[in-house]
Task: inverse folding
């Protein structure tokens, strides 16, 4: 099969979160299964762009409303990611360093989607499936069906994956003219809540809808930022396929971003060496359990609870644990954490921003990974943690519930709690300290689960292939 993935992110080209990791890995594993997987994404001005060689494969022009734009498509020459990678460039819109966060994001991603459809319409053959990811590509299934210039592509099956339904790409009807000429009788297929909603449009118009875990699919029917009735209505064409992780990138035996590589036999010594490096960098006590948080500092991740939870844990557990935070997001949360590290110097520290090398070192050097998320469609961090012998501490929601069972349950291997609140987090820290103080049990856990729990993309990639084949 020839599979076209369209996404705003793809690691290591450009990544803001889990979406980038998924699109950077799933096509590679599909290629290994003998299929032809390709990724199309915007041409941001990133290090990856400047550090690799490209060839021009197409140039074209289209309109965004009354404005005409020129676009070009380039292809990475060496196939270094394990699949064909194409970048779409539109001067003045996509030629930016950041992925998101601009006032004209609506115009940027609408023009990107129009360019993708226009380019595909020029192909001399038809791919077997077009797989769109999140709202930045959500108008493509509609445009292929109902925009007059593209509807000769209407028979190409489209699959849409919801990575995070909290972000939907809303835009007013005053921007409906951004769409290429289309059948205006079909306006209901892009509308939700009196506005154009790209996420809703994708759910309505794609042939199949997937979410990144089974539990998240269930949760969307009662917690999807206004789309609850839509997900209930479209449940017949929806399924949950759990994300995987790229075991070649996330491998403590070969990871060149950590201080010391290790396997199951060397996990105790290996993690100790990485923890020593980590604690040395951030002024923490290597002999205390190290609990880390890696992610966006936003309400969705319950990051606003971190300052009070850390403070409460340090007081209630008499300073018997250390904390390290890596992430960025809401300024108030960033400020509170920065203030806290001055107040509890030697007990907690922060790195405001994002660093891929530091994240790898934290997975390798930490004893516990805290994920108190209010919403977590799948979560990859807990899978990375397990791969590196780090105990996940997670709230029972979405993909966290699907991938982590509690120590108190039969064959449990993590710490799970029910509520995103300070009390549950603080209590879970106490459980972590107790486990850490029982080194025999902790090292036994590491050896049992570090490499034996298989969260690779092998199974999930096969599930997607089966889904595609069902559309023929």
Result:
């Amino acid at each position: 099969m020839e599979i076209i993935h369209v996404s705003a992110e793809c690691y290591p080209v450009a990544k803001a979160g889990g979406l980038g990791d998924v699109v950077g890995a799933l096509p590679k594993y599909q290629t290994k299964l003998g299929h032809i997987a390709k990724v199309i994404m915007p041409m941001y001005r990133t290090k990856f762009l400047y550090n690799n060689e490209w060839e021009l494969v197409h140039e074209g022009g289209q309109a965004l409303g009354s404005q005409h734009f020129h676009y070009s498509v380039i292809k990475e020459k060496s196939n270094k990611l394990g699949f064909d990678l194409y970048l779409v460039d539109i001067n003045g819109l996509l030629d930016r360093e950041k992925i998101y966060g601009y006032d004209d994001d609506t115009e940027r991603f609408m023009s990107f989607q129009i360019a993708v459809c226009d380019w595909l319409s020029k192909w001399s053959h038809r791919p077997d499936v077009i797989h769109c990811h999140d709202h930045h590509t959500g108008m493509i299934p509609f445009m292929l069906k109902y925009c007059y210039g593209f509807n000769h592509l209407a028979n190409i099956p489209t699959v849409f994956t919801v990575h995070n339904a909290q972000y939907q790409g809303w835009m007013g009807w005053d921007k409906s003219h951004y769409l290429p000429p289309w059948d205006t009788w079909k306006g209901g297929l892009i509308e939700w809540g009196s506005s154009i909603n790209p996420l809703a449009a994708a759910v309505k118009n794609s042939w199949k809808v997937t979410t990144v875990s089974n539990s998240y699919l269930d949760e969307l029917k009662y917690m999807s930022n206004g789309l609850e009735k839509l997900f209930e209505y479209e449940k017949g064409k929806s399924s949950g396929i759990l994300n995987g992780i790229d075991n070649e990138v996330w491998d403590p035996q070969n990871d060149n971003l950590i201080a010391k590589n290790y396997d199951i036999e060397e996990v105790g010594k290996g993690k100790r060496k990485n923890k020593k490096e980590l604690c040395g960098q951030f002024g923490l006590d290597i002999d205390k359990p190290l609990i880390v948080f890696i992610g966006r500092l936003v309400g969705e991740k319950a990051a606003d609870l971190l300052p009070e939870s850390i403070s409460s844990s340090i007081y209630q557990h008499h300073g018997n644990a250390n904390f390290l935070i890596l992430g960025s997001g809401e300024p108030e949360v960033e400020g509170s954490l920065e203030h806290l590290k001055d107040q509890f110097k030697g007990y907690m520290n922060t790195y405001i921003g994002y660093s891929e090398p530091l994240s790898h070192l934290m997975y390798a050097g930490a004893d516990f990974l805290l994920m108190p998320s209010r919403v977590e469609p799948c979560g990859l961090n807990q899978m990375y943690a397990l791969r590196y012998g780090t105990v996940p501490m997670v709230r029972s929601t979405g993909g966290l519930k699907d991938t982590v069972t509690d120590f108190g349950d039969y064959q449990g291997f993590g710490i799970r709690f029910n509520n995103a609140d300070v009390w549950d987090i603080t209590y879970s820290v106490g459980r972590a300290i107790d486990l850490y103080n029982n080194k025999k049990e902790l090292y036994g856990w590491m050896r049992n689960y570090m490499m034996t729990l298989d969260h690779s993309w092998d199974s999930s990639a096969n599930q997607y292939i089966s889904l595609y084949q069902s559309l023929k």
User: Anything to note?
Assistant: The radius of gyration is 23 Å.
